[in-house]
Specification:
Order of helices and strands: HHEHHEHEHEHEHEEHEHHHEHEEEH
Number of strands: 12
Shape: globular
Number of helices: 14
Distance between the termini: 49 Å
Strand content: 5-15%
Radius of gyration: 21 Å
Bound molecules: pyridoxal-5'-phosphate
């Protein structure tokens, strides 16, 4: 039987392929997925469990419970300084991914172009294609510190361009787009009447007391920006599948109608967990502090491995490591490392084919595991050099 044309283009990402392959080794150390090992705060877990016990397990409104939207709006006001109307401006989604997909589905017509910045989160391209859009890629390099040049974004704009997607802090580089660059991107969006989808799911994991601005907060940007945020990374709630979108009423109302047709709503226990999380745990810094400590440890240990190079990420929980001195492709590196040392990492080409000199390593495991993983990576690198 025939499948859709769309189905032909959909592939399992290399991240998932490596993750699946890693499962065959009992002693594997898996540094592939951005899935933190930390448990959410006990009170957040209790809120979800209590909801189940009390039978709060039915459908909610498609945009989410009023209390959940109110809790999210309270958080949004704190971070962005913008008061939301919970009936209009915000909806809960199935993770940040649900929000990303719905926002694209709401604004992209077949053939419309969406500008994305590489290295990019692997799911952007397929999501754009799944809604019939075409991705246009702005490449960044270590020369520009993996920060996009606004004029390169502008150069890609055609009459078919509908949106610019940005991801700050960025997966996989851990870079924060500086405020002056965001301002220039905002000006480009306004001048060309484009939407901006601003993926901010890592905005709580920012280190060294740095700040991460949101493009939505520049004048006139609220009306054209869809902010994507999530409980996954901030509260270590990946499996709860709870996220949200904030944007113009015209877009949020369409996204809400679309959500009715694919998921109905965010699972109720997760919504109760979100209420607890955003109401009482915004000032818990345990998760961020833990990752900052792990980052420092991992960068220090990685610098001890000759031939591998990386900068300390400003945010998120990944190292984007330059393996060019080993003269291997990133896929070769990842496959051989897994086979020889049972350590799983993601090949750089996952994030754009210009990044074959990189691998991504997540520091979402305990320090002892990271320590052991880096010991094994060192042994592997030495074997390649000797080999
Ligand atoms: N955006 C980026 C850049 C991500 O890295 C991820 C997950 O890794 C997501 C969005 C989606 O996260 P979730 O759907 O768990 O909120």
């Amino acid at each position: 039987m025939k499948l859709s044309k769309r189905a032909e283009n959909i592939q399992t990402s290399l991240t998932r392929q490596l993750f699946n392959k890693a499962k065959q080794y009992e002693d594997v150390i898996d540094l592939t997925l951005g899935d933190p090992d930390l448990k959410p705060h006990q009170e957040i877990c209790d809120a979800a469990c209590n909801a189940i016990q009390e039978g709060k397990t039915r459908y909610s409104m498609n945009a989410g419970l009023f209390e959940a939207r109110r809790a999210v709006a309270g958080y949004y006001e704190k971070v962005h300084g913008v008061k939301l109307n919970i009936n209009r401006d915000v909806m809960l989604t199935i993770g940040g991914m649900g929000a990303l997909y719905l926002s694209l589905a709401a604004i992209v017509n077949p053939g419309d172009e969406v500008i994305i910045i590489a290295p990019y989160y692997v799911n952007y391209i397929q999501m754009i294609q799944m809604v019939g859009g075409v991705e246009k890629v702005v490449w960044t390099t270590p020369k520009n510190n993996f920060i996009p040049y606004p004029d390169e974004i502008e150069r890609l704009i055609t009459e078919n361009t509908i949106a610019i997607m940005i991801n700050s802090p960025c997966n996989p580089t851990g870079k924060i787009i500086p405020k002056d660059i965001l301002k220039q991107i905002a000006e480009i969006a306004i001048k060309n009447d484009l939407y901006v989808i601003s993926d901010e799911v890592y905005n709580s994991l920012v280190y060294d007391e740095l700040e991460c601005a949101s493009i939505a907060d520049f004048p006139e940007m609220g009306e054209r920006t869809i902010v994507i945020d999530s409980m996954s990374k901030r509260f270590s709630m990946t499996g709860y599948r709870a996220g949200f979108a904030v944007g113009p009423e015209s877009v949020i109302s369409v996204m809400t109608k679309m959500q009715e047709n694919i998921a109905s709503c965010t699972p109720l226990p997760s919504q109760y967990a979100a209420i607890e999380a955003y109401t009482n745990h915004l000032d818990d810094h345990f998760i961020r502090d833990t990752f900052e400590e792990r980052r420092n440890f991992m960068v220090k240990r990685l610098k001890e491995i000759p031939l591998l190079q990386c900068n300390s990420p400003q945010a998120a929980f990944y190292l984007f490591v330059d393996i060019s001195r080993l003269h291997m492709t990133s896929l070769e590196f990842a496959a051989k490392l897994l086979e020889a040392q049972h350590v799983a990492v993601v090949p750089g080409i996952t994030y754009g084919d210009q990044y074959d000199d990189y691998i991504r390593i997540a520091f979402t495991l305990k320090k002892e595991k990271i320590d052991e993983a880096l010991r094994r990576i060192k042994v592997f690198v030495e074997s390649v050099v000797e080999g």
